[in-house]
Amino acid sequence: MSKNQLSDYFDELNDDTDTESPRKRITQKRESKKREQEAKLFIRAQEIAKEFQFTYKAARFEEAWLLDSLTEIHEHQWISDVLRKVKGGKEASVYLCKAGAEMSVPFVAAKIYRPRSLRNLKNDAQYRVGRVDLDADGTALWKEADKNAIAKRTSYGEEVRHRSWIAYEFKTMERLFEAGADVPRPYAMEKNAIVMDFVGDENTAASILNSVNLSHTEARTLRDRVLHNMDIMLANECIHGDLSAYNILYWNGEIKLIDFPQIVLPRSNPTAWNIFLRDVVRVCDYFSSQGVNCDAYKIAADLWAKYGYRIGKQLDPKHLDPENPEDRKAWEKR
Ligand SMILES: Nc1ncnc2c1ncn2[C@@H]1O[C@H](COP(=O)(O)OP(=O)(O)OP(=O)(O)O)[C@@H](O)[C@H]1O
Ligand SMILES: [Mg+2]
User: Fold this and answer.
1) Is 198 in the pocket of ligand 1 (CB under 6 A)?
2) Which CATH architecture has domain 3-197?
3) What is the pLDDT of residues 93-108, one digit of tens each?
């Protein structure tokens, strides 16, 4: 049985949509198919578990999914143990892991994308405009067959598309880390998992900034730090696309930006300016709540102008032009 099939089993076993919809009642036939799949899943999981046992007490299906997702990462000695789940997010769950012999840090975070959510990526179209899709190694897809499969949305194409989504997160983190941005250091990407620096310590994970109350001085310092990071991102031709105080971690007075699969390319995505402005507005909303003044539109327009990005109204009348005062007025009245 291939690894992808194992993920498929995990999806199907956790698919409770049928029980919610009376029109899609689970038939007896489907029930017995499920039992058959369940049996195969656990045989496979038991095989893997002989070589890799971890401390974290996962639920049955979660354990099988973790084993499936982390086996290669464990074999490469990037992790030696899964200690606990840090958080289950919308698209992925993040685990605190003990680092393996190949690593020079004691702990790492493993972000593991869920098979089910991977099949239901919503609204990814607006972010993917102007991006080439990437393969599992993070290099641009070159096989016409892969590109066609994505365009036709075959199940193989969906698989390739989701791998590209994860590869964008990993490659972006690599690029930004090298450029000096405050992001967890990324170490490895395998299948549906990314291994990166764990922000926090053995006992406590970093808080999301949104849940932290800052002193006025610290708020000003961190606002400037976040804007500095947004500047680095623009300099590296990317926009976060989902930035807010929910995707910024706070630990010991320092911040780390996280969650990059949806990054947007400012030169080739016609809605880039609007997405960038939305990121700045959300960041400013948080810092305003901490008593620090932020003129989001001005900050965004100045940064945008610094890099000479042009895409705006001229390409799509629905979108604002950062250099047009009328557009600013319209935006303020929104
Ligand atoms: N490197 C890390 N170190 C410590 N905790 C982390 C790390 N990366 C992520 N987390 C925790 O896991 C949560 C989910 O991570 P992330 O935002 O990347 O995934 P997501 O699936 O997009 O989640 P969400 O839907 O909540 O945004 C974060 O809010 C944070 O609490
Ligand atoms: Mg997130």
Assistant:
1) yes
2) 2-Layer Sandwich (3.30)
3) 999 999 999 999 999 9
